[in-house]
Amino acid sequence: MERIQKMFGSFVLASALAAMPLVASAESVHAHSATGVFISPSGIVRVIGADVTAVGSGVVSAATTIGTTIINWLVNTSASTNITVGGSTSTSTSGIKIGDSIGFVGTLSSSTGSSFTVAASKLHDFTRVPPLHVVPGTIVSVNVGSSSLTISKGNRTLTVQTNASTTVSLNGTASTLASLQAGEKVRVVGTASADGSVITASQIVAKTKSGNDNEAEEENDKHASSISKESHHENSIFGRLHLHLGNDD
User: Fold this and answer.
1) Of 140, 142, 162, 165, the residue nearest 151 (C-alpha)
2) Predicted confidence (pLDDT) per residue in 6-32, tens digit
3) Does the chain have fewer CB atoms within 10 Å around its N or its C terminus?
4) CA–CA distances in Å: residue 208 to residues 187, 188, 220, 229
């Protein structure tokens, strides 16, 4: 694996980190899939897969273990720090718990032995990020007033809730919820409620019953496949809940 060649600061820092692999930056992969540390010559720190050991007001203590090397981090936040917990923006560290896996970006401010202090510009807690699911089905009804629609697959139905961040496309073109109609094929990408009856959509990809169905289907599948790979959850929420709906789309 690629090794970190350049370190910022003292000889202590260089000695502690010189043998550590450069796995990933804190913004490129989920914390559970890799652990890595990168410190640029200018002192910009990027860490992924750090385990939280303590949480205070505006400060998080964490540790990374790479090979036999354990690095302790004191991550200081401020009003300008971009904090994300469970996929949602936060204004404090209160939602972060001991044992959570975090990633952060910031400026190295000091080091003592194998402990380093960072002024964080970004801090993300990946532990409780809800998984994304790709849900195929057919639109049963659209309720513009409640910003929702109902879709079905087999003999099961699911409520799809939208919000200001939801994107809608129809036959490969940007559209709106109001433009969707009952009977249209749809794939919904989003996060499910605890009982699986409601999915909050981040993206809705639909195709009309008329028009070039083959072209629309290809565009539909291309969008859904791309999002499915990014989320690493290719099975629909229907399948995950073992609803035995069969393989029909």
Assistant:
1) 140
2) 333 333 344 444 433 333 333 333 334
3) N
4) 12, 15, 11, 25
Give the pTM.
0.50
Please report which confidence band the pLDDT of residue 67 belongs to, taking 50, 70 and 90 as the band edges: confident
Phi-psi label, residue 147: left if phi above 0, alpha if psi -120 to 50, beta otherwise: left
Q: Whose CA is closest to 28, among 36, 20, 16? A: 36
pLDDT confidence of 133, banded at 50, 70, 90? confident
Contacts (Cβ under 8 Å, ≥6 apart) of 249: 136, 153, 185
Is the model's pLDDT at 130 over the cut of 80? Answer: no
Nearest to 216 by CA among 175, 173, 247: 173
